[in-house]
Hints:
- It is built from six helices and 16 strands.
- The strands form three sheets. Strands 4-3-5-8-10-9-14-15-13-12-11 form an eleven-stranded antiparallel beta sheet.
- It has a single domain (3-22, 33-325), classed as 2-Layer Sandwich (HIT family, subunit A).
- The model has no long low-confidence stretch (mean pLDDT 92).
- By secondary structure, the chain is of the alpha+beta class.
- It is globular, with a radius of gyration of 20 Å.
Amino acid sequence: MPELRIDPLSGRLVSYAPERAKRPHEVGPQAPRLLDDPARCPFCPGKEEVLSPATLVLARAGACVRFDRESGDKRIREWLVKCIPNLYPVFSAEDALRGEHGLEKSPGLHEAVIDSPDHEADPWSLTIMQLQYLLVTLRERLSQLEKDEFSYACFGKNHGPYSGASLRHPHSHIIASSITPPLLRRESEALRAGNCILCRDRDPARTLISTGGFIAICPWASREPYEIMVYPKNHRQRFTELDDAELLELASMLSTLFKALKIILENPSFNLALHTRPMDADDFHWHIEIVPRILVPMVAEIGLGIYVNTMLPEKSAEELKEAIKRI
C-alpha cells in the first residue's frame, strides 16, 4: 500500500509506492547525448576567445589565487573557475512580465559557471580544494548580484544526460531575476526563525552527515530515491554569509555526498539547486537540494503536481550511510 506524505516546506504531495520499482527500468536505454569532445568543447582551456568575456574569474596569481574580470579582447589563461554569460539564457536584461495591465520590465540574468578547466572533472572526482574554489567563486558572484536590483539570485547544476545538461564539461548556472519564484515565497513562510522547519529537522534515521556547522539529510518527503538536502545547523538566511572556513567545511561534505551517490548509482544524473533568501522575504534558512534523476515524470507529477517515489527516504538514507562508510 503506498504511503503518502506532504512536504512541510514546499507543500508538495509525495506518494511512496515501492512496488513501482519492480516495473521495467525507469531510465531509457538511450540516454540523451552530451557534447563530449574536448577538441570541440568551448569550456576547455585554449578556447577562451570563443566565449564572451567572463564576468568573474578565479585565477592563479603565483602561489595564491585572485578574482579578475575579462573585457574586450582581454582573456585570462590561468583560470580555475569562471563565470560567463549563458548563450541560451533563461532570464535576460530584456525580460518583461506580462500581466493584465500589459508588460512590466523584469530584468534577469543567466550565467554559466565553468567549474574547472578539467573536461573530465565530475563532481565526485573534484578535490575538496577544487570544490572550495567553486564555492568561493559562487559566493563572490552572488554577493555582487545581491547589490544589483534583482529580487533573487541563486546557483544550480545539471549533471548528466538525464538532468537537462547539454555539455559534458563540468559547469553550473547562476540565475538572477526581478521576480521571486513562488516556491521560494512559500518556503520563506515555513523557514521563519523560531518556527523554522529546518532548524527542527534532525531525524537520526534520515541524517547522513552532521558536522560542526552543517547537516545533510534525506528530506522527509523526498521526490526521488537518494534525494539529499544540505543546510547550516544554525539559522542562516543567505549562502553569501559563509566565511572561507565554512566553505571548506561545506566543500568537504559535498565531496563525500557526491562520492556516495557515485558508489550507489555508478554515474548518476542529478540536479542541484541553492535556495537562499530572496530580497523581498523577511526571513529564510538557506539550503541546497541534490535531486538524482532516476524516475521518469508521469501523469501524477505533470498533470497534478503529485510526485511518485519508489523509495522511502529512511531507506535511501540507510543505503547512503553505508556508501559513506566505504569512502
